Amino acid sequence: MRETTWIIDAQSGALTVEGLKQSELAQLAADLLTPGKQVNCARPINIEPLRLPSVQVANDEPSLRVFRIYHNSVVEGPGRRSVVQTAGCLLRCVGCFAIETWPLDSGVEMEVREVVERVLDPTGEPRDGVTVLGGEPFLQPDGLLALMKALKQRGQHITLYTGYTLEELTLRRDAHIAEILAGADILIDGPFVKELSENAGEWRGSTNQAIIYNSAIRIAGAVPSK
């Protein structure tokens, strides 16, 4: 029998199921559940894009163009996550769940300081860490690095998604990229491949994507040893 994972949100009662096709789940639980909605990384349900007024970013302040900030995700890294979804992507994977994030002028440009304040919501949102995804986060390396540093200074576990592979990023021989990778507790790499999306498992959009822990990033040579 195929292994499945059932996650019940203790706060909202929402049920997330991994390992079953939506048709299988509907057949199994039709007498118990209302119709399900398919969720995946970078595709939250009923979370609107940021609609902020034009933001004035100081020239000397690091900034990041952000599409969404949301909380209570259980599909984008271990535990319950707060999520920063960056705007802009040049990869344009066929079947992408987040095509609205592709335009380079989508989202809102924000000072990294404000992004951190919003994602680490002081009103008590429970979290086991922060996930950064896109769009394509590595399209904004300076702002991404500043965000990673600020989150690490606040003791956050960081899961980082990218459509590039670890090998591709390593071959750039870019000090900023190496420092970004050093701050990632988990890197989920590789483009989304629609044909490989079936039963991709936890946290991934398609089976070609790898879940890489920080120690493995260092072994791969992406992060210089201290």
What is this structure, in a nutshell?
With 226 residues, the protein is an alpha/beta fold.
Structural commentary:
This protein has helices spanning 22-29, 112-119, 141-153, 166-171, 175-183, 214-219; strands spanning 5-8, 15-18, 63-73, 81-86, 108-111, 129-133, 158-161, 186-189, 210-213. It has 226 residues and is an alpha/beta fold. The longest helix is centred in the middle third of the chain and has 13 residues, at 141-153. The protein is globular, with a radius of gyration of 18 Å.
Features of the shown structure:
226 residues; alpha/beta; two-stranded antiparallel ribbon; 22% helix
Q: Topology of this structure?
A:
Blueprint: E1 5-8, E2 15-18, H1 22-29, E3 63-73, E4 81-86, E5 108-111, H2 112-119, E6 129-133, H3 141-153, E7 158-161, H4 166-171, H5 175-183, E8 186-189, E9 210-213, H6 214-219
* Radius of gyration from CA coordinates: 18 Å
Kindly, what is the distance between the CA atoms of the first and last residues, rounded to a whole number of angstroms? 46 Å
**What pattern of helices and strands is seen along the backbone?**
EEHEEEHEHEHHEEH
Look at the helices and sheets and give the structural class: alpha/beta
- Poorly predicted sequence stretches spanning 5 or more consecutive residues: none
Average pLDDT figure:
85
Helix content: 10-25%
Question: What is the total tally of β strands?
Answer: 9
Report the sheet-strand fraction.
15-25%
Q: What is the approximate shape?
A: globular
Largest sheet: 7 strands, mixed
- Helix count, DSSP H or I runs of 4 or more residues: 6
Order of strands across the main sheet: 5-3-4-6-7-8-9
